[in-house]
Amino acid sequence: MKAHDGMYIGGEWRAAAGTDLIAVVDPADEQVIAHVPAGTAEDVDAAVSAAREALPAWAATLPAERAAKIAALRDVLVARKDEIAETVTAELGAPLPFSQAVHAGVPILVAGSYAELAASYAFEEKVGNSTVYAEPVGVVGAITPWNYPLHQIVAKVAPALAAGCTVVLKPAEDTPLTAQLFAEAVHEAGIPAGVFNLVTGLGPVAGQALAEHGGVDLVSFTGSTAVGKQIGATAGAAVKRVALELGGKSANVILPSADLAKAVGVGIANVMGNSGQTCSAWTRMLVHTSQYDEAVALAAEAAAKYGDRIGPLVNAKQHARVRGYIEKGVAEGARLVAGGPEAPREQGYFVSPTVFADVTPEMTIAQEEIFGPVVSIIRYEDEDDALRIANGTVYGLAGAVWAGDDAEAVAFARRMDTGQVDINGGRFNPLAPFGGYKQSGVGRELGSHGLAEYLQTKSLQF
Ligand code: NAD
User: Please, which pLDDT band fits residue 2 given cuts at 50, 70 and 90?
Assistant: First the structure.
């Protein structure tokens, strides 16, 4: 797609207030592919005004009308799915088949789920002598990261629109073209002017202006824990609603009764899929001491097979950061069994699929979020030891448990301090609430729980 040189505000593309630009780089070959405007507080202010103006009429629409608009948006995304996949591949670097299946496919599913939920959700209920109404929170400031550029946008905008909220989006600076394409889709779907607005720009400028804006009623942020803490503090000081989807360091717990080869194979694929740039990726593989050597050999083989099929990391900074973590793992005494810190290609921000064995729970690579294609295999002695290791980080976003039967895996999963667990390779469910325990965040996205984030309750007594 061709980049827009303005902001999508009040139903039209408007010139940006300033003249600064952000260069969009293809991480596979390090070439600049486009420029978008770097928004300022003035652009954010204009977008919030447009969203406030559109709010009363949109909030007053019948749920069925909102459902129809979201269904129309889903249909535009379906019609433009190839363009979406190509755009994500160009600015994020994900291999095209992955972009088609996941980066384009998942947002279509999620948009469809909110078209249905908007129509079926109980926005009104009777409780004794009261009628309780679920009403929109108001104007939403949505701030999204680059790792799943369209999914993160749709996971906020679709439920916000279903609830009757209006939105100002500030997408990640690395992936603004996908956000512009989404704004085009909103326009094409006939969503009324001002209901959705887009301001591209830098986090500490446009992002911060949006998070601090007095005209925003709820800030929904996905990104790093460091920025999330700042946004939470700002929102708290203003007594403003906030939803935070932050980092993760998820455990893939393989119990001795599990199908080891399957658990290891799926575990490696789970991390390598988006070059490890998945907040919920199972980057710590926990294996019983009796099966440890076999698991290490299987993991090394599975990672090596990935080889060239893996995409680059998003930018030069992440490239340096991830390679730094791999060097740190070696320095702290972990044993490299696949990959390593050397860049496998001369051009592009590529990192080889990397597996570490002999990782102990306190090592940096077992504690901090690397956000690259790196798996740490950790040994445990018994189930209590596995649980202590699984729960032994500041994060609690996701995880996996494998066992001979689901009941055994469920019993373990119920003891994990984490928001989402896949049992024996359970499939992705777009209606299942997603979000973190501990420092992985506040609030939930997807399904009816995700919709509830954008609603506030009013009760009338009779
Ligand atoms: P980031 O926090 O640097 O940026 C996320 C977004 O916040 C971007 O749009 C950025 O421009 C904006 N931002 C940056 N500084 C800001 C500020 N001071 N005020 C307001 N906005 C600001 O994170 P990132 O590097 O883009 O993304 C990677 C991180 O996101 C990882 O830690 C990952 O785990 C996390 N993540 C979490 C989830 C989840 O659902 N829990 C999903 C995807 C990514």
Answer: confident
pLDDT digits (tens, 9 = 90+) for 26-44: 999 999 999 999 999 999 9
| Active-site residue flag, 165 | no
Strands laid side by side in the 139-143 sheet: 12-15, 6-9, 196-198, 166-170, 139-143, 218-222, 241-245, 441-442
* Confidence grade of residue 314 (pLDDT, cut at 50, 70, 90): very high
Which overall architecture, per CATH, does domain 6-246+440-461 show? 3-Layer(aba) Sandwich (3.40)
- Annotated domain spans of the chain: 6-246+440-461, 251-430
Q: Which residues form ligand 1's pocket by a CB distance below 6 Å? A: 143-147, 170-173, 203-204, 207-208, 211, 222-224, 227, 230-231, 245-248, 279, 369, 371, 397, 436, 441
pLDDT digits (tens, 9 = 90+) for 340-362: 999 999 999 999 999 999 999 99
Burial class (CB in 10 A: 0-12, 13-18, 19+), 378: buried
Q: Which of 311, 315, 317 is nearest to 351 (CA)?
A: 311
* Architecture field, domain 251-430: 3-Layer(aba) Sandwich (3.40)
Considering the candidates 212, 245, 445, 453, report the single residue annotated as catalytic.
245
Say yes or no to pLDDT of 307 above 90.
no
How many Cβ atoms are within 10 Å of 140's Cβ, its own excluded? Answer: 29
Inter-axis angle of helices 63-79 and 149-163, nearest 10? 160
Query: Which residue puts its alpha carbon closest to atom 16 of ligand 1?
Result: 203
| Average confidence (pLDDT) over 376-389 | 98
Please give the average per-residue pLDDT across 368-378, as a whole number.
Answer: 98
